[in-house]
Amino acid sequence: MRSIMLGAALTLVTLGAADAAIQISTAKIEDGQLVISGRVAKANEKVTFDGRFDTMSRSNRRFTWKEVYHPADCTVTVKSADEEREVVIANCGQAGPKGDKGDAGPQGAAGPKGDTGPAGPKGEAGPAGPAGTAGTASAAGPKGEAGPKGDPGAKGEAGPQGEPGPAAKLSIGTVTTGPKASATITGSAAEPVLNLVLPSAPAAQAAATPAAAPVLRAVTATCEGKTSCEAACDAGEALLTATPAPTEQMFAKARWSGDSLPSEARIVCGKLQ
User: Fold this and answer.
1) Is domain 17-88 in CATH 3.40.50.1260, yes or no?
2) Sheet holding 53-56, edge to edge
3) pTM higher than 0.90, yes or no?
4) Cα separation of 228 and 258, whole Å?
5) Is the pLDDT at 137 greater than 60, yes or no?
């Protein structure tokens, strides 16, 4: 009776050890892939291969792993949570020693031209080159056409009022006869000289009648505060001189305006008696 019980105990220990070990049913290279299948002690347990690949056991504790992998020494370390073992791979040849370098093959044909790559970053500016020799001066080109006339500028401000000039000192110059009466002024603005031409009379009357003398009259006009100013002689009189120089002078009157407008203007009129 004791022998039967001891034998049963040994059988249970052996079965428990067998169940705990990693069991490998397939370990080979097939169709270019490494295939390892087997069974581990637990369901849904992670199984790793050479510490690089892994898979999970199914509910029946079996697993299958496939990978394009060729170990150099034709062995793979299979590891579960509690077990680890080395497995020799069938249909696996170990790598031999490295052979000598072969001769270079002939140069292959040039491939098609690739697409243009993106533009590179802009390079730094190079150093300035030496100055070139001065070129010869060319002949001057033709004169261009005059451009369009520009708009007139804004009117400037009136200048300060000048001091009144000295009164003109009029004197009579030559008095002659002619077919038509006329008067001219010579000399300067300060000392004008009046030259007269009187109409000719019949010879008998000319001998009996002395030459007529002109009557002079000064006319003064106040221009201060005005935009324009005018001084005129009476009917039958002629304008002999005007002070200061007017903007416009006619036979019997003178006009001042703009920058030439004085505070007071004066003219001298002459009339033959």
Assistant:
1) no
2) 53-56, 46-49, 75-79, 84-88
3) no
4) 7
5) yes
